[in-house]
Amino acid sequence: MYITRRGVACLTAALATVWVTSAAAQEFDWKAHSGETITFLANSNPLGQLLIDHADEFEELTGITLEVDSYQEQQMRQRLMTVMNARSDEVDVFMTLPSREGMQFASAGWYADLTPYIQDSVSPDYDADGFGKALMDAATFDGQLTAVPLNIEGPLLYYRTDVFEECGLDAPSSLEGLADTAAKLKECTDLTPFASRGLAPAAPYSFSAFMHNMGGQYIVDGESAMCSPEAKQALTLYSDLLKNYGPPGVVNYSFQQLTALYSAGRSAMSFESSNEFGLIMESGDRLEDTAIVPLPEGPGGSHPTVIGWGMAISANSANPDAAWYFLQWASSPEMQAKFALEGIAPPRAAVADSADYKAWLEESPVRQQWHDALAILAETGTSEIGYPIIANPESREHIGQAIGDMLLGTASVDQACAKADTALNELIARD
């Protein structure tokens, strides 16, 4: 199940949900599992790191000992697959992307069903209805709630206003115009003109917005459509931008390298996750010279990528009740309000409407631009990254490989898309 463009609009509309939290009137004890220990498998992205940084608050509140196992995203996924395939209880809670592995993990029986917990075991101030129906639906498979929402995010275009002014340039207003802007920046400045993800497993996250804005679709009439005219145009534009105007070694770039490059002032444009906003602005150098917008529209319109991380309990956990307390704490209004002030966009409308958050936005124009861009993503975006099939994670590998082959010059667009289509049609047939 994926968040559709119409469905995502519900995130900011805060529509009422069908989740009934009967526990509000019941006695709730945060110390009910004091003395127990749970293991958290974390992605060391900005959201995961904030959870780790505040972990002592959770332990003080609950008396539960939290053991953290933290890795970069690809290594985290490898670790999770090893644990889950072994049906091991080594991991109790983990971060998950329902838009990526949700269908696959649910089909394999790897998620614990959170429905009984969110109905019968929440603190009175948890406000399960505050997430909005669309976000909860995106994490629900065959009637089972598999994760609670932690954030809302998507790739955004960060660009240097001082460099653009010096070069006499306006922000690109069309997808095709990105290449012209990058070419002029290359003539005008020594900075990297354009940077985005080139690492094969990571590239589909940013490439998908190019695909959709170009008017392409991953599947047409039940078959892979990577060789459609629109998809080939998207592949060509994306790979040419990185090959001609990207940083050296971009084929190895994911969010960590992009954030370091842009925050150090060494790239003029960076198409990267909204989640990186806090880290990019951390030093303060980019607060005064950065503007943020969604990816410009293309021939197919504007269909930005929007997703959200969730927190799940392993179906093999030996401590699911204590694990639920960690999920509830991590996704609580109080914690998400703290994270919002660190540049993690809140999935709760009440947090986004709070006085503290609005005051934080007003302190800097770029913060308001970041928020406004995310609102556009929420209203018009799609969470389709890769193929809407059980083997979605594997489908992304073939998309990323096509991009990588073109970046390295080992395949033309026709060769790269044909190779991808062959592999992807096998996945579709197997689904």
From TrEMBL:
- State what protein this is by name: Sugar ABC transporter substrate-binding protein
Location comes to: Periplasm
Its family remark reads: Belongs to the bacterial solute-binding protein 1 family.
Native species of this protein?
Paracoccus onubensis
| InterPro entries registered for this protein in UniProt | Bact_solute-bd_prot1 (IPR050490), SBP (IPR006059)
Keywords on this record?
Answer: Cell membrane, Lipoprotein, Membrane, Palmitate, Signal
Signal peptide interval: 1-25
Superkingdom is: Bacteria
A cellular component term (GO) from this record? periplasmic space
Read off the CDD domains from this record: PBP2_TMBP_like
